Amino acid sequence: MQILPVQSGDIARLSALARDCFSETFGHLYPPSDLEAFLVKSYSAEALLADITDPSQYWRMVIDDAGHTAAYLHCGPVTLPFDEADGNRHGELKRIYVRASHQGLGLGKRLLETALNWMSRTYGDAPQWLGVWSGNDRAQAIYAGYGFEKVGEYKFAVGETLDDEFILRRLPG
Fold this sequence. Notes:
- The chain has 173 residues and is α+β, with helices and mostly antiparallel strands.
- It has helices at residues 11-26, 32-43, 45-52, 107-123, 137-145; strands at residues 2-5, 58-63, 69-77, 91-98, 128-133, 149-158, 161-170.
- Helix content is 36%, strand content 31%.
């Protein structure tokens, strides 16, 4: 398994990977029209290209030994709706997804540690942030093991559906 930077030539693969991972993880929660609207808005090639060419964004994709996409990571300046979150000085782990076929191999942990290291290098000892679906107990337990604590809540739109999300913060150092 290799963790590689995402390049503009990887957009089609990243788009397919992101759509697949979100759908297999959360697709059952939404009406098909809401799911499709979200996938187009968040994971179309156009939306992703704008993000990966922004130097403030950090994208990595995992390629397995057979050359297939397995997982991805996205970090950048914090944009969570929380007063103490400073988009000029704090980083956010925006997405970690691992294909169901590749779960249980330690990829999520490797990507989380990669994200935390990037945020520490980029933002120093500033707070690190992430948003997580309120029903994702497994992810919340993993994040708690790395020192993240719940500090707030917000609504996350998937099409017309509004999910309850938790805002987590980690104080490194």
